[in-house]
Amino acid sequence: MAEFTDADLRGALFEHADLSGARFRAVSLSGARFRAADLTGVVMTGVELCDVEIHGELRNVTINGVDIAPLVDAELDRRYPLRAKMRPEDPAGFQQAWGILERLWDETVRRARRLPPALLHESVGGEWSFIETLRHLAFATDAWVSRAILGAPSPWDPLDLPWDEMPDTPGVPRDRAARPPLEEVLRLRRDRMSVVRQVIGGLTAESLARQTEPAAGPGWPPPRSYPVRECLLIVLNEEWQHRLYAERDLEMLEAGARR
After folding, report:
1. pTM for the structure as a whole
2. What angle do CA 154, 100, 197 make, to 5 degrees?
């Protein structure tokens, strides 16, 4: 077991490192950055948590004896009244949710078209560019609809973009250097959105409640059975969250273009 006592680790990089069970006592984490970190089961006592930003999934997060996750969810639903529609229970609810997402994404794409094409490849704050965001959503559809629900073993397009921390997987593309034009990515995007529309449009109570058959061969998700409803909720969440990220970043790009 490594031990760091009275050590100066300022600026250290921990990447793909297993720190589970590690103990931190009288340490300074000021200015630290955590990305794609699993903090499940972390206990913090006697800490100073000031001027902190946390973006992620919150469940059973208790601060000073209060579970804040329901409070955060309620506030996000208040800010975004359509957000609650992204948790449907029946086929009609899924169809309504997908219609909302298509409309919202149409508005976001129109906004993006007004920017110089080069800016759509620009990262804001180290996040994906607008083009990369669309490529990732194509990957999400291929993974959770075409592969998991429809059983296609290798539905990938060369422009599909998995999340950065996903391990390299045989047959799954991850070309971060590609710089396709917006129209090429939108053609891919429209095709993948039509797949989701057809699947959701054909839902019944029985098909929504069923388990999928494992897809053949390696890929993402792993070849096992999943609830259809869970797969579709993942897609709705990906679409909703990444559109918010895209809108946030487009605002920054617009401000820079006006200067």
Report:
1. 0.89
2. 35
Question: Structure tokens of 74?
Answer: 């309620």
Helices (H), 80-181: 91-113, 130-141
- Within 10 angstroms of residue 192's Cβ, the number of other Cβ atoms is 23
Residue 197 belongs to domain with CATH number = 1.20.120.450
Q: Where are the alpha helices (DSSP H) in 3-85?
A: 69-79
Query: Tens digits of per-residue pLDDT, 123-150?
Result: 999 999 999 999 999 999 999 999 999 9
How far the first Cα of the chain sits from its last, in Å, is 52
Per-position b or e across 136-168, b if 16+ CB within 10 A of its CB: bbbbbbbbbbbbbbeebeebbeebbbbeeeeee
Query: Is 201 domain-assigned?
Result: yes
Which domain does 242 fall in, by range? 87-258
